[in-house]
Amino acid sequence: MGFEFTNRLKKLPPYLFVEIDKAKRIAAAEGRDIIDLGIGDPDEPTPKEVIDALHKAAQDSKNHHYPLDQGSSVFRERIARWYRERFQISLDPEKEILPLLGSKEGISHLPLAFINPGDVSLVPDPCYPPYKGGTILAGGIPYLMPLIEKNNFLPDLKKIEKLALKKAKIIYINYPNNPTSSVCEKGFFEDVAIFAKKYNLIVASDAAYSEVSFDDYRPESFLKAEGGKDAGVEFHSLSKTCNMTGWRVGFACGNEKIIAGLAKVKSNIDSGVFNAIQMAGVTALDIADKHLERMNKVYQGRRDALIDGLSKLGWVIKKPKATFYIWAALPKRHKSSIDFARMALDKADVIITPGIGFGESGEGYVRFALTVSKEKIQEAVQRLKKVF
Ligand SMILES: *Cc1c(COP(=O)(O)O)cnc(C)c1O
User: DSSP class of residue 234?
Assistant: First the structure.
């Protein structure tokens, strides 16, 4: 039978981590002891309080039915309170907050609400892949905004071509940033809000790492910028905040019309987050501060172990202020990030992610995820001597 994939499906690049996972499985099948600094999935379990809350909520038959499309009011109200306390922003839980099946779901569905075929999304390059994938699935065209070190990995808004701007409907931003682990300077969100207003763009601010930060740095919300709520929505996730990647729960907040568009798409595709998981989400927000205080110290210790270790090998990397990634320019005599990552796996049994997997401007870099123990990170540094 000659089944044909759609053109839009054919246009999607292969999902990076699927390829890496394949290489990892082959290596594991050969019995090698692999240290995986590839995918950013917290290694520590979900906090016990959250698991207990799910356990309790799962016993309650009220929670066994279809969730409301707009999400549980208890969860939405808890999110509103979290936003008020964390960012001093007030949100209407009825109209400005929408629970998601993980923030990836909302990020990738947003274009279905606002991108017509041929319209453009402005996406950073390198970037978290769903900005491009969601745009392509909606029939849109991703326009790449290079993130380069000279500009502190911020997009240069003045360099975006006029023709692309004419067709652009959405601009994705992501700070603290994956994969570059950069944070944005004061004023950047304000600049983006002004730019978005001028060109009538929706700002989709991906704040998945807003709670993973070090030293005295505390990330801000885009919605706090002047005009932020008029221009955009912010995506949050309990995945990185509370070690809940497998639970699939996140939320979008911000502009009422954008939230309504996303909710309409979702009501035609999924039927919301399991109520018991939304109740566990309430507990996650209750305990987030306490959990993060410990977790961020753990990541900070690993960050220091990796960077201090690599610097002894002569590989000098700046310490990031947020996220659990290290974005490192390749050592001098290496050029291709794929060759370097393959060599790290073949010769050192260490998995790292080649920068080019996140987009062209990622070439020349690799990403380390700090989601294994400090001891393993130290061991990985020793092994990487062989490829440095
Ligand atoms: C991990 C991640 C997300 C989202 O994860 P979910 O588990 O879908 O909530 C979103 N954006 C970035 C940049 C991420 O790294």
Answer: E
What does the alpha-carbon distance between residue 369 and residue 323 come to, in Å, rounded to a whole number?
Answer: 9
Contact 63, 279 (CB under 8 A): yes
| 2 located within any domain | no
Can you give the residue range of the structural domain that contains 119?
48-287
336 C-alpha to ligand 1 centroid (Å): 26
Give the mean model confidence (pLDDT) for residues 293-316. 96
308-311: long-range pairs with CB below 8 Å, 24+ = 309/377, 309/378, 309/381, 309/382, 310/381, 310/384
Average pLDDT over residues 359-376: 97
Nearest CA to ligand 1 atom 14: 208
Q: Same domain, yes or no, for 269 and 228?
A: yes
Residue 71 to residue 297: CA distance in whole angstroms? 33
Residue identified by tokens 């549980």 is 72
Of 287, 307, 327, the last residue of a domain is 287
3-state secondary structure 105-142: HHHHHHHHHHCCCCCEEEEEECCCCHHHHHHHHCCCEE
Using most ligand atoms within 8 A of CB, pick from 104, 153, 234 the residue to mutate for ligand 1.
104
Residue 13, pLDDT score? 80
DSSP structure class, residue 88: -
Query: What is this structure's pTM?
Result: 0.96
